[in-house]
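### Sample
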Amino acid sequence: MKFLMDLPGSTHVLKTLDAQPIAESLVANKLTYLIQACGDVTYQNDNTRKHFQQTFLIVAVDSKWKIVSECFRLQIPHNS
């Protein structure tokens, strides 16, 4: 919990959002979606705007949505 509390604050600006259903026959007959989001993030201790991409796989379990997989990536250009 201390680790999470020590993370800097951030502001996200969502630019694109896409959600695609996954065939229930492939995921044990559970309602499942793949969600992809892209945008900009600014961290409290660094005012440089950075591009991000985030992917979620969510599943309906007992009338609640559960995140079963999540990947967050900063899209920082490689400087040669």
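The longest strand covers residues 46-61. This sample (NTF2 domain-containing protein) is used throughout the tutorial notebook.
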